[in-house]
Amino acid sequence: MKNSGNGKVYIVGAGPGDPELVTVKAVRLIQQAEVILYDRLVNKELLQHCSPETILIDCGKAPRAHAMPQEQIQQTLVRYALEGYTVVRLKGGDPLVFGRGTEEALELAEWGIPYEIVPGVTSAIGAAAASGIPLTHRHYAASFACVTGSRCHGSGPDIRWDLLAHSVDTLAIYMGVSELPNIREQLLKHGKPSSTPVALIERGTTPDQRVIVGTLADIDTVAVSRKLTNPALIIIGEVVRIREQLLHAEQQALSMIG
Ligand code: SAH
């Protein structure tokens, strides 16, 4: 138990996977942290920045190999902060993009505990950049939306596939791997052309990154045959074609040099 009263919690974005895709502020806070609670998708290399004395809590691996329940994470944050520790809550990507950072901030606010939210590069932005797919493009896409592919049973608003099929040019879908057949069906049902290109980016920005490309017509079978696994991001829209253009231009340049 430390002197109580001086604790603070930093809810920090750890970026999309590449340990260099974090903010200077995130690195400084990891260096200064006395306690770090980190999620499964956080690149563990980031923990090299912390001091040997830092208390490290892996929220992705609680006893019996289950993820630590959200309530327990919040209780742990509160407990350490009340004991006076400087706590970093490290979350994959950006803490507020499908990250439940708000629930944690709300809990801290209710306890009167000071906290700060530090943004991170969200995986849609990271994976798009690392795979050569622009989410917007002067000629092909004036808008993009970040969408969750899974909705916890009955919680929150329904996903408006009917509107998303028409009103947004590029869809970046998180947590959609197991829902891919359903997502595809919904978009086709609501009139999205089956020729719309789709990219599946597995482990974006990491050395294991894999990009699988298809169209709405075949993407679910392609995903199965190529054994797509989590974490992966689904990008749907004409911008996916730009990747082919980039790859083609790169190959031509290489062949001219060679
Ligand atoms: N707060 C995170 C998202 C958490 S939801 C962020 O801002 O990125 C978890 C989902 O993020 C995964 O199911 C997957 O769709 C996506 N994701 C996270 N890391 C990824 C990566 N390296 N490559 C592709 N998708 C990733």
TrEMBL record:
<dbReference type="InterPro" id="IPR035996">
    <property type="entry name" value="4pyrrol_Methylase_sf"/>
</dbReference>
<comment type="similarity">
    <text>Belongs to the precorrin methyltransferase family.</text>
</comment>
<keyword id="KW-0489">Methyltransferase</keyword>
<dbReference type="InterPro" id="IPR000878">
    <property type="entry name" value="4pyrrol_Mease"/>
</dbReference>
<protein>
    <recommendedName>
        <fullName>Uroporphyrinogen-III C-methyltransferase</fullName>
        <ecNumber>2.1.1.107</ecNumber>
    </recommendedName>
</protein>
<keyword id="KW-0949">S-adenosyl-L-methionine</keyword>
<dbReference type="Pfam" id="PF00590">
    <property type="entry name" value="TP_methylase"/>
</dbReference>
<dbReference type="InterPro" id="IPR014777">
    <property type="entry name" value="4pyrrole_Mease_sub1"/>
</dbReference>
<keyword id="KW-0627">Porphyrin biosynthesis</keyword>
<dbReference type="GO" id="GO:0032259">
    <property type="term" value="P:methylation"/>
</dbReference>
<dbReference type="InterPro" id="IPR014776">
    <property type="entry name" value="4pyrrole_Mease_sub2"/>
</dbReference>
<dbReference type="InterPro" id="IPR006366">
    <property type="entry name" value="CobA/CysG_C"/>
</dbReference>
<dbReference type="InterPro" id="IPR050161">
    <property type="entry name" value="Siro_Cobalamin_biosynth"/>
</dbReference>
<keyword id="KW-0808">Transferase</keyword>
<dbReference type="InterPro" id="IPR003043">
    <property type="entry name" value="Uropor_MeTrfase_CS"/>
</dbReference>
<feature type="domain" description="Tetrapyrrole methylase">
    <location>
        <begin position="8"/>
        <end position="219"/>
    </location>
</feature>
<dbReference type="GO" id="GO:0019354">
    <property type="term" value="P:siroheme biosynthetic process"/>
</dbReference>
<dbReference type="GO" id="GO:0004851">
    <property type="term" value="F:uroporphyrin-III C-methyltransferase activity"/>
</dbReference>
